[in-house]
Design brief:
Keywords: Golgi apparatus, GPI-anchor biosynthesis, Membrane, Signal, Transmembrane, Transmembrane helix. The protein is mainly alpha-helical and 394 residues long. It has helices spanning 4-7, 27-33, 45-70, 80-92, 121-150, 172-199, 214-236, 240-265, 271-294, 299-323, 329-347, 359-393, and strands spanning 94-95, 98-99. Helices cover 66% and strands 1% of the residues. A hairpin with a 2-residue loop joins strand 1 (94-95) and strand 2. The structure holds zinc ion.
Length: 394
């Protein structure tokens, strides 16, 4: 059983060297990773730390127990009414009296009508995707209508609540928030670049930044922007390809940010140690992405993997913020607390209000200000570390 006192014991720890940027309770881990032992100047941190740790470990346990209790694959997919409707729609191209032009295929898969260029395989693929999407959408509406008559509440279909389309966009609110997140990530990424290369001093020998984590954060920005791009695409058009691209990008971002969290909180600067930390996470994330794409897109399993990776890095940052003397640790606290609260929206998922705003859309809204604060922390960290390195040089 995971408990605050059995997990973190610092009381009897020997505090030797001083490094204010290291995590506590990780002496054994540091040894395993070949890192220097940690310590702290202030002895009063021990009692404060226990309180904070208890809070976070408790939150972690509560979130995980909720998670395993509530996560299931989408219930709507297995509804026999929905399945029968989908099968019929694929064959006939119609749901009740509504027929879709994208679904007009002959039995050998060729388009029934249209000029030759419209019968090219690529176009056919798009048509099949459109047909599947139309069938899924109208079968979902139909099943939901039937359920409403019976007085049962809405359920999810292929990982999503039944939404109303606007101009063919499936979840317009989530698309708008994803686009704003993408813009915010780009703003943060660019401003870090400007800060490092134009505002802070550069190493005279190679004109490179002093900040040892600049490369890691630049790549992080690329993963984040890629993830929000595919999120916007997926929320506007839900087909197998966009769904897999969105899920894979999100897993890749979470995996990469976990690596960055470990490297930064443990202050890992050596190339070999960095590779040693990154390799198992990369292997796990790659396997998981391959599993999702080529074996089974298991929503429940994916959610568990994502939340486990998300909570692990939140805990790392939280404990680090608790013990470090970083001047901008309040930003870190704000991001950690804000993200934890926002994660509740993903866990206590509720159906869309009026068919438009659901918990997931609100979760995308909350990450916009958090992203701004996050990049602001990264810029502060770059400045802090640069000034620290300059002091050491002098
Ligand atoms: Zn989303």
């Amino acid at each position: 059983m995971l408990g605050c006192c059995s997990t973190y014991q610092y009381g009897d720890m020997e505090l030797e060297s001083v490094d204010e940027f290291m995590l506590p309770g990780c002496k054994t881990l540091n040894r395993a990773f070949g890192l220097p032992t940690l310590g702290h100047r202030d002895s009063s941190w021990k009692s404060e730390l226990k309180m904070e740790d208890c809070f976070w470990v408790l939150l972690f346990v509560v979130l995980l127990s909720c998670l395993f209790g509530t996560l299931n694959a989408s219930a709507g997919d297995s509804d026999p009414r929905y399945q029968v409707c989908l099968e019929q729609c694929k064959e006939t191209g119609c749901v009740k009296d509504k027929c879709f032009q994208h679904c007009r295929f002959s039995s050998d898969g060729d388009s029934v009508d249209g000029p030759w260029y419209m019968q090219e395989p690529m176009y056919l693929q798009w048509k099949q995707w459109d047909c599947q999407s139309d069938c899924r959408y109208h079968c979902m509406l139909d099943t939901e209508k039937e359920k409403e008559v019976l007085g049962t509440g809405p359920v999810k279909y292929h990982g999503k609540w039944p939404f109303k389309r606007v101009f063919g966009i499936q979840e317009p609110v989530s698309v708008a928030f994803s686009a704003l997140n993408l813009a915010m990530q780009f703003h943060g990424w660019l401003s870090l670049f400007i800060h490092l290369y134009y505002k802070l001093p550069l190493r005279p020998q190679n004109r490179k930044p002093y900040y040892e984590y600049s490369g890691l954060w630049f790549i992080y920005g690329l993963f984040a922007m890629n993830s929000w791009f595919w999120s916007a695409v997926f929320h506007s058009r839900d087909v197998d390809l966009t769904e897999k691209l969105d899920y894979s990008s999100a897993v890749a971002l979470l995996g990469y940010s976990l690596i960055v969290a470990v490297l930064r909180t443990f202050n890992v600067r050596g190339e070999a140690t960095r590779v040693m930390v990154a390799a198992p996470v990369l292997a796990f994330v790659t396997t998981h992405i391959l599993y999702l794409n080529f074996f089974k897109l298991d929503y429940g399993l994916n959610m568990k993997v994502c939340v486990a990776m998300g909570i692990t890095q939140l805990l790392l940052w939280a404990v680090w913020a608790g013990v470090s003397r970083h001047p901008s640790k309040w930003k870190l606290w704000a991001v950690v607390v804000g993200t934890s609260l926002a994660m509740l929206l993903e866990i206590y998922d509720f159906p869309p209000y009026q068919g438009y705003v659901d918990a997931h859309a609100l979760w995308h809204a909350t990450t916009i200000p958090l992203t701004y604060l996050w990049w602001s922390f990264i810029k502060d960290d770059a400045e802090f570390r640069t000034l620290d390195s300059l002091k050491k040089v002098k």
